Amino acid sequence: MQEPLFIVSKEDWSLHRKGYEDQLRHKEKVKEAIKKNLGDLVSEENIILSNGKDMVKIPIRSLDEYRFRYNYNKQKLSGQGKGDSKVGDVLGRDGTPANGGKGQGAGDQPGQDVYEAEISVEEIQEMLFGDLELPDLKNKPNQDMVTKDIHFNDIRKKGLMGNIDKKRTIIANLKRNNISGKPGIHNISIDDLRFKTWQEVIIPHSQAVVIAMMDTSGSMGMFEKYIARTFFFWMVRFLRTKYENVEIVFIAHHTEAKEVSEEDFFSRGESGGTICSSAYKKALEIIDKRYSPDRYNIYPFHFSDGDNLTSDNQRSVEYVKELMKRSNMFGYGEINPYNRQSTLMNVFKNLKDDKFVYYVIREKADVYQSLKTFFKKREAAPTE
Amino acid sequence: MDEIKELNRVVEEITEIALGFGLDPFPMRYEICPPDIIYTFGAYGMPTRFSHWSFGKTFNRMKMQYDLGLSKIYELVINNNPSYAFLLEGNSLIQNKLIIAHVLAHTDFFKNNFYFSKTNRGMVESMSATAERIRKYEMQYGKEVVEDFLDAALAIQEHIDPNLLTPKLKWSKDEADSGKKKKGRESEYDSLWRLDQYINSNGEKGEADNEKKEKKFPPQPEKDILLFIEEYSNHLESWQRDILTMIREEMLYFWPQIETKIMNEGWASYWHARILREMDLTEEETIEFAKLNSSVVQPSRTSINPYYFGLKVFEDIEKRWDNPTEEEQKLHGRKKGQGRKKLFEVRETERDISFIRNYMTKELVKELDLYLYQKKGNEWVIVEKDWEKIRDQLVQTKVNGGFPYLVVENGDYLRNGELYLKHQYEGIELDIRYLEKTLPYLFQLWGRMVHLETVVENRAVLFSYDGNKTFRKFI
Fold this sequence. Notes:
By secondary structure, chain A is α/β, with parallel strands linked by helices. Helix content of chain A is 32%, strand content 23%.
């Protein structure tokens, strides 16, 4: 038979899933890569500024398909003008030359070596929090507040008509008819009926408060504030996975401490010297007034560059000890990109208490490490 | 179905016109597909190719661009006998007319261009068998293990020797062991062949000294790194060698398409316009055709659009051979009215490199307003308008398919079985970050320390990887 010159056809392609399958594998690899880069991701600006709502795009380098290739930046490339191009004309700036019109050749532009993956903050959170644990999570004795929750998790033969489980009822009917030798769905009897039934679950009403303290003295710059912001962002999200209700109190201080709004906390510029004890004192006042340790899990965290007034150090230590009596833990994060010896750290070093945890952050990626340090899995401290 | 009937009629008409013009395509199989299928095939290069996440990544990117309306593939055509053309579902009739004419010219090119003469015309089946085999290995050795290996193999897949005359290694291991030249061919042209070697050995003295020198392995620099590793790595298991063979075959199949991108698209664009002119189009169709055509052959400021550039060169050739100048008539004995004939000759014998070198003229460069640009500081600036420089740069980007030219210099470096590659530097540096990330893959394949010699800022540098760390030193 002679082969036809042509055939035109249209088939059903719905079972051809290869592209999607490999796309899935690629996504898995992206996820692996993200996991490896959590340190960088945690301080990724896109995420912190997104307020955690949306999908964020994050650059991922490790998914490139590496091969031996030319360095585009050192290569001359060719292009085409509208008839009046001349030497010296600028086509574009920075990363990639501006592409005039979407031609067929697009996609092979130089500079496209960063792969942008889209990921939800939730996914990152899941990976990140897998490594973290709350230290010293205590059952507060006065937890009189409980919430009731209803879980539909049982099936019974008797129940309210509104809660009938149609699928199971039909399955029961099918089984019965099969046994009686007349397969099919018919003659649904009372015996076949199945109902969904609930159980009441009692969940202890747990709440936590974070006392976020930050040094806003003249020595705290943009970088220092960003680090603190990043840290509190993740910390609050983490606590929310453990507690039903998490409140945050913001205390900004230089030589005096003030309770401020979240916005002010991160944006307000202050100046002057530093007296840390003022913040600790304020924290104690607030705790005593509003957050009884009987009912709240309390997490005071202080971020500073450590540049405290020397004469204030001893007082600070006393207040911190006082704070620890009321709190689950006390965290001190020192943001110290230049690796100086700080006055505050000098005295804190000698504090021997399981509740006291400190970490020195030198660069963005350290935020991840600091989270892991503050919330690392450890043996529970002995209860008093 | 009406749609199919209608298309059948159109295809018949277009095929007739195309054959009338002297086009000589393979028998065609047209298949109408939904977008995700077209994009899958586009990402894999073939409907039946094996699975790998990198294809999934490409698919994801292409599909996303389609979903966002940034780009659209209207068709895809496969070099095979019969040739498969995939048409996007929902194309309008006039779009399909243009596409059908376009793909007919593509398969005419596949069938008749010299560089495609050795390609496997049963590749659809062949790739399907490959995919099947790789799947089997996945079940046998584990998905991750096979994926790891594919990652490494794909990282060096372009480093084959696509030379049509010497499809396998040019030397044998015996020859390498004895350190002597094979005395196979003796003819009056031998000195010519030796010239090649002379050039290869970087101007060192030729044959006479060769015998005295230490025996080398390979005896001459080997371009086919994939094949070299497949044959001489002591580290690979037989299934791994099998995968290397298959990947190399697929690359050999794709290679002529890489080398003729401009010609192939130019040829197809030339013909879709000529063929549609012969058809009775309604007024609306004519306008839609013009729109579509101009979007396909749209010039770009930052790259050379192969559709447009190729088309322009073909049209210029036709013009110059239809109406040669007096000088051309006298000097080259060119007769008038030979344009079409010349075009068919060019489509048979050239590839992009020679196409540009032989047929790009000063006038054309001026007419198309071509230029070279480069990154200076953080700006991309036009740096060159001289037509010969532009031509030479275009030719250079086509050398070795646009990939850096690497050879195996020594397969037993330091007498320790280490692999020593050399980059034949021609003025463009390698991407160092990529290089350092690729060496581990090479190590994975070779199983011992690997080295790559290249040039950075005019100094020879040797990059090495020992399984843990990359080293670099000036040499």
